[in-house]
TrEMBL record:
Listed name of the protein: NADH-flavin reductase
Domain of life: Bacteria
Organism (species): Amycolatopsis regifaucium
One Pfam family this sequence matches: NAD_binding_10
Span of domain NAD(P)-binding: 7-197
InterPro entries xref list: NAD(P)-bd_dom (IPR016040), NAD(P)-bd_dom_sf (IPR036291)
Record-linked SUPFAM superfamilies: NAD(P)-binding Rossmann-fold domains (SSF51735)
Gene3D superfamilies for this protein: NAD(P)-binding Rossmann-like Domain (3.40.50.720)
Length: 210
């Protein structure tokens, strides 16, 4: 499998790159600052490009089996980074004739499947604190879901820097109840598994620690 990763220097993106390379997969990492990509491998191709550079992004996704957009906001201020990434990935895939896209979102803006306390107390507070990044993710999901491509949206909860465990709970009908966190390494693991799982095409999946 050949894959392209947007947001390859972020927490989840870096893990996706590392795990894919370890599995012998060809990886194209799309980055703005290559000095932040602390990975080297003969199967790794680095493309330095902004999300506005349609030609470079089209070339980066051409001939690849899947594109994973792992972009995310680093601060709580207004942002469109996830939405911009979704627009850019969709446009590049269309131009290149590709179809498979995985988008990393978050379970935070959504309450389906949550328990009463989480859905009615915790999430409203969280929604106020993180309203800008949450709004960005909701908008990005809407764009991807409306597309004609073979998309999968993956919603993790709070991200941690723990080790790769491979123990992951997943639901396509709502959030994982009691699933308040997950290690970034396990998010990457799930993304790579989902990339080749046709049953997840045009599905939104919430994941958490198993």
């Amino acid at each position: 499998m050949k894959l392209t990763v947007f947001g390859a220097t972020g927490g989840v993106g870096t893990e996706v790159v590392k795990q894919a390379l370890a599995a012998g997969r060809h990886v194209t990492a799309v980055v703005r600052d290559p000095s932040r990509l602390e990975v080297e491998d003969e199967l790794l191709e680095v493309v330095v490009a902004e999300l506005s550079e349609h030609g470079a992004l089209t070339e980066a996704v051409s001939g690849r089996d899947v594109v994973i957009s792992a972009l995310g906001a680093r601060e709580r201020r207004p942002t469109t980074v996830v939405t911009d990434g979704a627009h850019a990935a969709l446009a590049a895939l269309r131009s290149a004739g590709g179809r498979r896209l995985l988008l990393v979102s978050a379970s935070g803006p959504f309450v389906d499947g949550d328990g009463f306390f989480t859905g009615n107390v915790v999430k409203p507070i969280l929604g106020k604190v993180l309203r800008h990044p949450f709004a960005d993710m909701v908008a990005a999901e809407r764009i991807v879901r409306a597309s004609e491509l073979d998309w999968t949206i993956v919603r993790p909860p709070r991200l941690l820097n723990g080790p790769h465990t491979g123990v992951i709970a997943a639901r396509t009908d709502g959030n994982v109840r009691g699933g308040f966190s997950i290690n970034r390494a396990d998010v990457a693991d799930y993304l790579l598994r989902a990339a080749s799982d046709d049953s997840l095409i045009r599905q939104t999946v919430s994941i958490a620690k198993g």
